[in-house]
Every structure is written in C-alpha cells, then in structure tokens.
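Quick check before the chapter quiz. The format below is the same one you will see on the exam, so make sure you can read both the input and the output lines.
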Amino acid sequence: MNKNNTIFIKESFIKAITSPISTIEEAKTVFKNDMPQGTLYNLVNRNEYLKETCQALNSDEQKLFFLNGFQGTGKTEFINTLIYALEENILNFYHECSPVTHLDDIILSLFNYLKKIAIKNPEYKRAFKISNSQSIDERLMNFIKTINIPLLIMIDGFENLTNPNEEQKELTHFLEFLSSIPEIKIIISGRKISFSSLKTDPFEIRLSGLDESEAYKILKNNELIETESGLQQIFQVTRGYPENLLWFSNAVNTLNISSFDLLQEYYAKDQKSFEEFVYQKIYKSIPDEFLKTTCFFTAIRHSVTFETLEKLNFTSEIRDKINYLTSKMLLTHNRDGFYIKSLLKNTVYSSISPDEKKQIHRYLYEIYSEQISKKLEERIFPVSRKLLYSEQYYHYMCLTNYGDKSLPDLKTTTLSNLKPDFKYLYTNITDSLFVGNQEAENNTQT
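Here is the expected output.
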C-alpha cells in the first residue's frame, strides 16, 4: 500500500454526492444496503459538508478533523454517514465520551478494539503480544507503530471528557502521536473542542440547524402532515436541529398522539424544556415491570453493554427490557452500550424513594469497589481504574448523604489498590513517549 495516498472514502460515494440530493428516495440509491434514517437525511441536508469532509479524508494533508455543533445538530449521524462511506479495508474505531470519561478510558477502548484486530493477524499479534512486563499503553504503542492498515479514530461527545484541562497535555501528545502515523486519521466531535498547543491544524466542520424548508421536508417524510402554523411551532421547539426533528417525529409515534395535541399540552403547562416534558410523558406511560431497569440506569454515569448487564444480573430478561426501553426512547444506544439521557435521568431519579436509592448506590458501590483491583480482562466494566475509583467514590458519597454510616473509611481501604493501567501516561516522560523518543522508552524499560 502506498502510505502517502491512502483512500479512506469510496470514490463512488464522493461521485454520488457531487450533485445535490434532494429527496430520501434519491439518498437510498446512493447505498445498496439499508441505512438508518438519520444517515439518509445527512445525504440530503448535509451534502456540501459531506463532500468537503470526504475529499479532505482522502487527501494527504488532513490528519485531524474537528466536528462542532450544538446537541441535536446531527454530529453523531454525520459520523455514521462517513462510516458507511468508508472503503472496506479501513479500520474504524468509535468511542463516545460520557460525563465521567477520562483519557485513560479512550486509550483502553482503543486498546480493546485493536486487540481484537491483532488476534486475527499473526504479524500484529506478535507486535501486540501479551506480556506481564508490558503495560497496556506499551502494547498499544507497539501495535500502532507497526500498523499498515488505514485506521479512522472517532471520538464523540468530546465535551463530556472529564477534566480536559488537567489532561490537556497528555491528550495533546496522544493526538499528536496518532497524527504522526501515516495510516491514521482522527475525527473529534463535540459541542466544544479546544486545544491551545496542537501542532497539527485541524479540518473543522461546523454543523448548525436546518432552514425551515429543509426541516419541513424531514417532518413531511415522517408523515407529520401539519398546517403551516403547526410546522412553524415544531420548528421552534426543535430549533431546526435534524436529530431533534427526528426525535420529535418518533415521540409522536411512541406516545400515539398528534403533534398538535402534544404541543398544546406542552404550552398549557408552560414547561421550561420541551424535551424534558416529552421524556416525562413517555416515562409515565411504561409498565411497572420496566421501572427497576430505568431506575438502575439513573445511577450509572457511563454507558453499559449487554454483556455487562447480563453479568450484573440485577433483573430478569434484561435484553428484552433494554430493547423495549430503547424503542421507547428512554435509553440511548451507541457502539459502547446503553445509557439514559441526562434530562430523563434527573426526572426518574427524583421519583425514586430514598430506600431504593440507597439500595442501588450500595449495590454499585460494592461492584465498583470489587473491580478496582482487577486486571482489565477480569473487569465487569471494561473501563479504566481511574473511572472505577471515581464511581466508587461517587456512590460512597451518595450513600453518605443518605445517612449510611456502615461504610468503611474509603481512603484507607481503596487508595492502596489504585494501581495505574498505564506505565507512562501520567509520568514526566509523557512528552518523550508520544513523540517517539526511543532513548526515553529504553530508559523507562530498564
């Protein structure tokens, strides 16, 4: 492979979007396979953005991409569209940051993804070898330095990254290191992305709301036949953001109510947030058998996979319940698992009795406490030790606030168990590591 001319996006896709696509029917002809609704709308409403981004991804000059926009403007669906357009030989890693994500968690997630790739390839397996003398970041570095398959790294929800200012130096060097590898390109998506010391100039994409005519197309395509006044009201409450428009359409179908009646009820109650009003209405409509699962998610501050939920075994028929809650828009699903949106989380949590809250926090406190000393491959939650410790402390403080005095002194029982997942990442040789200073690596390994 010519390392200086890696093609990430299919040329056939770029050719197909060269001309404007005006309808969903036209968009469906671009891909032969079924695509999510939001992805199809990107082909219609984000045509120019897609064309410019795809061309930049296929150029030698651009290595780092920043995707900006308010919540609901369609950043995640924009990324999904790019994933659908990738050449078949392109590896693609996606990580969505939660409000408790640390840089450690991004690196661990990338490690797990590439480990699966390495297992299938003897050459990579040797570079990514399992060794008790090597830390996770050492093995990750070994693999990345030998990689000859194009890799697109996508980090979504970047504004949620915990303590970005404190980890700015390490994060900057990590991105600079990744950008130095010819086969790797990086997309960072979030409401706010700020780096003061990056040497690499990013390609920036800024998404905003749609104009009224484009927004009305989405509503009409979803069979929301409204008067001009009704369309204007929907446009106002959704701010013309694509994801909000689709969310509104799904909410009407989920509640089995007309958009007119939904809006009238909202205006009559003078709610501050339309989204919060709708979430509350959906939550109140679900059967009691799903309440325990919903309540459990209000205490989890990061996404959780099916596999983890089954290991936790806190309720029966967990997959059926998760699928139901996701279909009702009460849980959100991404590649990393399931989570509950913050607007709904606050509503549900406030409805739980103090005794139930104590029970949930006690259960999770014990789980996180147990996981801290375990190796990565042994953990129920495949997250960093730093996140495990922060969540243990969070549930400890919740229990303390509810008057639970049976807990041991957290500082004396757990700090000694907090061993780092990484050998180099938070040491004074971080600079040398990520710019490839071999002398520093040799000195550290002795």
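If your answer matched, good. Residues 212-270 form one domain.
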